[in-house]
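Backbone description:
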Amino acid sequence: MNDNRKIRVFLDEDPAPFAEFSPPVKFVLDTTKIPDGKHQLRIVAQSTTGKEGVKTVPFEVRNGPSIAVVGLQDGDVVTDQVPVTINSYGSERNDFFLIRGSETPKGIPAWVWATLISFVGFALFYFIMYWNPDHYKSFF
């Protein structure tokens, strides 16, 4: 039987495939050669009878440094002056592991404050309701 199955892999809207394989296939997609941003991998598989199946896989490449913006979000309506903090961080060295302080300054989330206040409130309630000096007398 003639096995003419093949898999062609396209990147974005490029009409020429960047790879063609016979199934099954395992390959490494080198994203360092693709610019950062949203992309689409289109896989076209051909069966032995010549019928084609197509699958698209959207993905995003982010090889450059991460960028964090505090103070302005997508779709915000702003007036007057808006303080904005921008931080860019990424791994610039590949030869050894080094911990650097490049965290983005962000406020503590509201749920953390709510949990902390609830815990402290319950502790005070428990202390007030069950405080009895007789429990703390010496047994000797």
